[in-house]
Write a structure and sequence with these properties.
Layout (H helix, E strand, L loop, with lengths): L1 H9 L2 H12 L5 H13 L1 H23 L6 H16 L1
Length: 89
């Protein structure tokens, strides 16, 4: 019961998930980080969510680092032509 009250008063799960995303993007303030850490000590569901989020971020980072990052002029022109065709119906 006390955990539930603390949970609601300090930081609801909806805000905690937002702070986790900000933490991953390195845009979280020290105060927000402190609130998130307190919430994670209390909430086992958000701890599990954070673990899954970290795994997903690692997989995505690995996937995108292995993919081709250069775009040549012909690919850009093809994209423009497709967009023009779609706009013209």
């Amino acid at each position: 019961m006390i955990r539930k009250i603390l949970h609601i008063l300090f930081l609801p799960c909806s805000e905690a998930t937002l702070l986790m995303e900000k933490h991953n993007a390195d845009t979280i303030s020290a105060k927000e980080k402190r609130k998130l850490n307190i919430h994670l000590m209390i909430c086992k569901w958000c701890r599990m969510y954070k673990q899954k989020l970290e795994i997903l971020d690692k997989v995505l980072a690995k996937t995108f680092s292995e993919q081709k990052t250069e775009i040549n002029e012909s690919e850009i022109q093809d994209f423009k032509n497709k967009m023009i065709d779609k706009l013209n119906f």
